[in-house]
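We treat protein structure as text, and this decision shapes the records that our systems exchange. Because each token names a local backbone shape, the row as a whole describes the fold. For reference, a complete record is included directly beneath this paragraph.
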Amino acid sequence: MDIVIPSLTDPSVAPPGKHVMSCFVQYAPYDLRDGTNWDDEREAFGDTVIDTIAEHAPGIRDRILHRQVLTPLDLERTFGLSEGNIFQGELTLEQLFFLRPVPGWAQYTTPIDRLYMCGAATHPGGGIMGAPGKNAALRAMSEVK
């Protein structure tokens, strides 16, 4: 779980004396056990996240005024991320480095001349903000004659 409190560095995102906390759960399955679905399990999932944080930050539950729980299904519905995967594919050995997103399409190039890829599907992936775009731009500029 990654937790960020952006209002510590930018107080304008919360009312005076209040804070915003974002909790990113690194993995939650897209498909749930038989008979359950994310629309029904959303709030229970949010409760589990808060319970986990409360083990290390007692009293936090009493300080939460509002919350929004986004499930993998919500990420797919809202942002078009297949199965809610922000990395546009699993970060497994067969999809890393020169194999990302697939063999032959790494290093930001495509089979189409002067068409370059960037984003979470390219190296180094979705966890490094902006790096795929910068790398793709540098590749494109290096090929300009």
Q: What stands out?
A: The chain has a mean pLDDT of 89. The longest strand covers residues 2-4. The two ends are 45 Å apart (CA to CA).
